[in-house]
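Checklist before submission:
- one chain only
- standard amino acids only
- sequence pasted in full

Submission:
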Amino acid sequence: EVQLVESGGGLVQPGGSLRLSCVASGFTFSSSAMSWVRQAPGKGFEWVSNIGGSGESTTYVDFVKGRFTISRDNAKSMLYLQMNSLQPEDTAVYYCVMGWDTFGSWGHGTQVTVSS
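Returned file contents:
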């Protein structure tokens, strides 16, 4: 059974940083591209970033470029999202998702709230 469990969310002031983590199990992690997707309050799902299985290929949505960094540790089956210079509009539930541009299993999400 595929399991994706996110952690690292919380309340942070504007300009602050958070590092999200996702531990994966139940599949060959290194063979799967992974993504982060978010859902802001009252809005639809929004793709944020993805990373290839080896970690060499990454892409980002324009509004997080230069602020967010996706990475992975295949030895630990871990996916990360380093988020810097956070803004109130980054407030959302962030999901760890299998896949590059077509998505399979999702985690339950971790809440990120950016507020002063």
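Reviewer check: The longest strand covers residues 18-25.
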